[in-house]
Write a structure and sequence with these properties.
Helix content is 54%, strand content 7%. By secondary structure, it is an alpha+beta fold. It has two domains: 381 residues, Ammonium transporter fold (Orthogonal Bundle); 153 residues, Alpha-Beta Plaits (2-Layer Sandwich). The strands form two sheets. Strands 2-5-1-6 form a four-stranded antiparallel β-sheet, with helices on one face. A two-stranded antiparallel sheet has the order 3-4. The termini are far apart.
Length: 567
């Protein structure tokens, strides 16, 4: 007998968990750079679209088709009898879609940690593997009647089964890929690479928080019976309490440590609290949820700094700390704070030890299998894009998309530790034919020191290398602005959008203005040409002007003196 109430509840949960894909897409896009936005959105779309048929063909059967200790069984296309595992009154197809969206959540976590440098085809292969066997096998251990379930391991909605599995895969993937170009300076100290749209990231967090009520609340897989109804109310309260407290704690922590409350870290703290409470949201009290929130709020910034500064694992959106570390943390704290079995409630250490075994075994399974998958991909088709493709952005190089923000220009902060990545390209003999002019000379000044303005138009992805090169030769000041323009070619065709060729008649560029008085103009010009040269149309132009006078507003100094540092 099917139950309309239970079925509607499960389908509502499936819809809300599906909407989490939008939340993850917004978070990852907002916390990364504009030149990779289309690639991020595409990956979040395709891990769901690849995972759905894969889980239908392989994953669901592996997870639920039997009661073996290690694996369920093989049931392609879900044609078997699942009466033993179906929730009361819920039809098989409703339960299939409910489990499918949970699988997709585990898969999409990895996208953020491997953002801005992963080949799209390689990500698609990974997405197939996690949906086909990595997530389903450990999921069977926990939810499908496997050995952890038989031991009494408790992970109500997936702190370990979903989030920690995704977080471990994210950590291994980011470690094998290596950091983004410019993430670390020559001394190994991390540099901040800012996301381009904090509003988008915040929207993603709020979408995820809203959908988490379905992720946790609807995991009761029914709404009949007084006990279940009461449990759902408790789950909603604890699900809301932990992230709220985590945000407060992280805000205070960053305020004390950095003298300002960190916006990005506090947004991540909401997700950390949500992940941590997911395992025990049905068995902890509101006070216990607050304790879990405090723990997540403290551990998150410490973990982010540890992976960033100590292990040198570049995680653009903090997925490893949010999902991997806080997923494990929340599962372990359930062993301490469960009102029915927890150590802190006088029930002994047995349940806590089971939670420890479950976390360690699941983490080991995910780490070993994903390492094999990523190493296989790395040594066959390759896992990472080339340095040149990374600097240009994955939107244009992987998808032929000039920009995910048509009509807008963004400054890209790619900071290589040298010019070798950028100064390569087409040899002069093979480049677009040009007439080589003599180097700019420094005419003798009359009546004082000669001052010259140099305007440099360059591609957006070359700006940071140009800036660093100018600082290296002694330039102490410059102005940079985003501009749109074209040369004699009236812009060039750049890729496709929805199958139509994009005619970019006005291309985004950077204009760098420098007034030179001490450094020879010829050195500025020659250095700029060396950094910007590829031999292709669109390398840029350099304009040189005479400057009559310069006045420093604060001191009134004029001419040469106005251009010098007061120190």
């Amino acid at each position: 007998m099917y139950s309309a109430v239970n079925t509607i509840w499960v389908l509502l949960g499936a819809a809300l968990v599906f909407l989490m894909q939008a939340g993850f897409a917004m978070c990852e896009a907002g916390f990364t750079r504009a030149k990779n936005t289309g690639n991020i959105l595409m990956k979040n779309l395709m891990d769901f679209c690849i995972g759905t048929p894969t889980y239908w063909v392989l994953g669901f059967g592996i997870m639920f088709a039997g009661s073996g200790a290690i694996i369920g069984g093989l049931d392609p296309f879900v044609r078997g009898d699942y009466a033993a595992v179906l929730p009361e009154g819920v039809p098989l197809m409703a339960y299939l879609i409910f489990q499918t969206v949970f699988c997709a959540t585990a898969a999409t976590i990895v996208s953020g940690s491997m953002a801005e440098r992963t080949k799209f085809i390689s990500y698609c292969i990974y997405s197939f593997c996690i949906s086909a066997f990595i997530y389903p096998i450990s999921g069977h251990w926990i939810w499908g009647g496997g050995w952890l379930s038989q031991m009494g391991f408790h992970d109500f909605a997936g702190s370990t089964a979903v989030h920690m599995v995704g977080g471990v895969c994210a950590c291994i993937g980011a470690a094998i890929l290596g950091p983004r170009i410019g993430k670390y300076d020559k001394d190994g100290k991390p540099r901040a690479i800012l996301g381009h749209n904090l509003s988008l990231g915040a929207l993603g967090v709020f979408i995820l928080w809203f959908c988490w009520f379905g992720f946790n609340g609807c995991s009761t897989v029914g709404m009949t019976g007084d006990d279940t109804i009461a449990s759902a109310g408790l789950i909603f309260v604890t699900t809301n309490m932990a992230p709220a407290v985590a945000c407060c704690v992280t805000m205070i922590y960053t305020w004390l440590r950095y003298k300002k409350p960190d916006v990005g870290m506090t947004l991540n703290a909401a997700l950390a609290g949500l992940v941590a409470i997911t395992a025990g949201c049905d068995v902890v009290s509101p006070a216990g949820a607050a304790v879990i929130g405090v723990a997540a709020g403290l551990v998150l910034p410490i973990s982010v700094n540890f992976f960033d500064s100590v292990l040198k694992i570049d995680d653009p959106v903090g997925a490893v700390s949010v999902h991997g570390v806080c997923g494990a943390l929340g599962t372990l704290l359930t062993g301490l704070l469960s009102t029915t079995d927890g150590l802190f409630y006088g029930h002994g250490a047995h349940f806590f030890l089971i939670q420890c075994v479950g976390v360690l075994a699941t983490a080991a399974w995910a780490a070993v299998t994903i390492t094999i998958v990523f190493q296989f991909i790395k040594h066959t088709i390759g896992l990472r894009v080339s340095a040149e493709e990374e600097l240009k952005g994955l939107d244009i190089t992987e998808h032929g998309l000039p920009s995910a923000y048509g009509g807008f220009a963004f400054t890209y902060d790619d900071t290589p530790d040298g010019l070798e990545v950028l100064s390569g390209g087409v040899p002069v003999q093979e480049s677009v034919p040009v007439e080589v002019a003599p180097s700019a000379a420094d005419p003798a000044s009359v009546g004082g020191v000669k001052m010259t303005k140099v305007d440099i138009l360059c591609k957006m992805e070359r700006f940071d290398a140009l800036k660093r090169a100018m600082f290296d030769i002694g330039i102490t000041g410059m102005t940079a602005i985003n501009v749109m323009g074209c040369g004699e070619q009236r812009g060039k065709t750049e890729g496709y959008f929805r199958g139509a060729r994009v005619e970019a008649t006005m291309l985004p560029s950077i204009q760098v203005s420098i007034v030179v008085s001490k450094v020879p103009v010829s050195q500025v010009v020659d250095t700029a040409r060396k950094v910007l040269y590829t031999g292709s149309i669109g390398d840029g132009k350099i304009f040189v002007y005479n400057v009559e006078n310069v006045i420093k507003v604060r001191t009134g100094e004029q001419g040469y003196d106005a251009l010098q540092d007061a120190n």
